[in-house]
Queue: 2 jobs
Job 1
Amino acid sequence: MRALFTTCFIIGALLLVLIGCQNEVDIRTAQYSVNGQKVYITHCQNCHGEKGEGLGNLYPPLTDVKFLEKNRQKLACMIKYGATGELEVAGKKFNATMPASNLSAIDIAYVLTYINTKINKGKDIFPLAEVEKQLKNCQ
């Protein structure tokens, strides 16, 4: 009985150590992703779909990683102030107007992180500082 108790205690202690060893980046990424999912459901999902698949030829998918990487410096402005004109995403051309969202910088950081980490299975967070810098340079 004592051996069983000792074994259970050691396993429990190891689990606590493993859980407690999450680094700050992992915790921040999880926080941004969870909050981003809420923002996405409220402000983006209706047009871009539950899984970022887009809506036919009307609204582009958010699953084109190459497009997102190429346009990373423009994404915050597109979300905040909307977008007009033709975009080529995932090999298709889209010309619908994306309305302005008036989301806060932190909400934009959250939703971009959600799109990157959950929809596209990436690892990069969109830090608040990066989003704020982009928003200062919107044209």
Note: The chain has one domain: 24-137.
Job 2
Amino acid sequence: MNEIPTIEPRRKGRSGTQAMLIPSRQMIEEQIRLAPEGVLTETGVLRRRLAAQYGADACCPVTVQRHLRAIAELSFGAVEKGEPVSVVSPYWRMVDPASLLAKRLAGGPAFIRERLAAEYRER
């Protein structure tokens, strides 16, 4: 990866700071593609993996959610236009269909459940 990660100091508690990774969309997409097919991997796991990979204490949840929304928009739009599911970023592996985030994403909870179930059957 040619990208230099952005890590910013952030206050943590009264007397300390932590290194907060501000991930790029590319970083999120790479993690999504590494997630096993047909298995839900929580976004918290994705954030912890990214933080560890780049030597940060934490990964910005707001930025991750913002990028997930953009990725979902692009991926769902491509699938709707007839692109094979195998060529889009499988964001459904990272979003719990019962979460509030799933309701805000393109395709919504029903699409996420459908894709997870289809991948699980194909394994």
Note: The chain has five helices and three strands.
